[in-house]
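Tutorial, part two.
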Amino acid sequence: METKIRLVEVDYWNYDSLIDLKVKESQKGYVASNVYSLAEAYAAVASKGYALPFGIYLEDRPVGFLMIGYYPDLEYAKKAFGEEDEIPDYIPGSYLVWRFMIDQEYQGKGYGREAMRLALDYIRTKPCGNAECCWLSYEPENEVARNLYSSFGFEEKEKPKGWDEVPAVLKL
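Running the prediction step on this input gives:
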């Protein structure tokens, strides 16, 4: 099945339509809202950090949201996480699939799978700098996310002290 899914950088002309996208009521505990994610992206960039937000589009219609982060080194990771947090060894020098969601009306059509493929292709171009791996995390009860991510080769890691979500890592 060939879809016309594409990633579009968030800008002044599309952010509003991306804020309107919503997951199913039963999924709201799995992912932050897009407006919160965009605020986080702004704060990261304003703090000289890395956040790359994208709309996931089916042709010209927004159907999802994706945000990528980058942790160039341990010093940056400590600032992002906090000095007291445990920072697993795979985080410094890595990319993060920070947010990933498909609107409730477009789920179950393969758009998320295609968007993840495009996201990983983009990450492999190393747009912010070199990295050995890409990681993400998800709620332990989110089997749909677990199955999607593992199908791309993400391997679950032990939860660091203080984390609620399950981390998973993909070698680039």
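Helices lie at 15-19, 34-46, 74-81, 111-123, 143-151. In part three we will examine how such features are distributed along the chain.
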